[in-house]
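G., the chain you wanted modeled:
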Amino acid sequence: MTKASGRATFRDVFAVGEFRALWFAELLSMFGDQLARVALSILVYQKTNSAALTGLTYALTYAPSLLGGIFLSPIADRFPRREVMVAVDVIRAVVIGVAAIPGVPYQALWGLVAIVSLANPPFKASQLALMPDVLAGDRYVVGMAIRSMTIQTAQMLGFVGGGVLILSVDPHVGLLIDALTFVVSAAFVRFGLRYRPAAARPTQRVPFLASVSAGGRLLFADHGLRTLLLYTWFLSLLTVYEGLAVPYAAEFHGSSAAVGLLLAADPLGSVIGTFAFTRWVSPDVRPRLVGILAILASVVLLVCFLHPGLIVSILVFMAGGVLGATALMQATASLSLAVPDSARAQAMGLSNSGLSTITGISPAIGGVIADQLGSTATTVGVFGIVGLALAVPLGLAWQKELRTQPQRWIPGDSTPTGQS
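Predicted structure as tokens:
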């Protein structure tokens, strides 16, 4: 990897051919995932006419990824990461191809969906672990910003586009298209990335199950790494309002259009925030802002105690997206750069899986609290208080790290610890 210094631009990042290959592969995978969720939900509902079973199918597209993140992410450290990504894409293409066969029972669809969800973390862990090898210096943080903006934009547009497409074609055809996206993604990875040997050398390897626990010990025994990991999990708790958008809008008699605007607010804020953060904040300042951004992301939720209407709520959720997404992006980037390359994929797998799990669990917890309090807006405000209770001690811990080991966390002339 070539060294790059100074502030990078989007053009600098897209000039790197390997990044373009990773970006296109992820874009295709994301499109395929969104399309498959819509198609599978329609298929199961057509077979069962049950909202509960349809919801279970949708949940299976996410839930097993936690196990995959814990137990399968180390694969991306023990084997060449490019080959892991290609293998996962091929597995996903075959499994979704089988799901596309007409007449497959819905119980079998559940198993196939669970396999795909279980296989996602090794792909994601490999991709995130390769990013510091592909992008040097500030290009890495800008590359992470581009990823964040892509994901958030896809979140805004993916389900809508997928729904329109599935309405135009048979759901089985939609699944075949999904399988094809994985084949094309595998081609981008295989021919767009150069070969790199496994990060963990054979002499460094321990038995597989031992490596699972060793990765956890590495993250939790190191004060700085533990703080950053907890940031990546904690910040996903604050997006509870996305899962509660329907009852939240109902409190001020908002229409379905209001629900859509509330759902779009956080992703839109995230895109704006990540763009501004990487465009106008200097590389040596960004790590210092993680704590204050996380605290402010919690503070803005306190406005919901006032039971605001649609416009103010949109502004609050946009502000949450601006603050939370930039803090999360920088915390993830700092974590990745500080972890030794031989364990980077497992670290990023644990971070990403925990983030996804908490993102899914927080609306469920919020729903229970809202039923008890009788107000969704008040519940979002309560999450702001909980966020502050977590953000303040994490912020103090992070400031201590920056004071005691600035050379480890603040970009300088030398390559950050753990970067290769």
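The domain at 210-405 is CATH 1.20.1250.20 (Growth Hormone; Chain: A;).

Shout if anything looks off.
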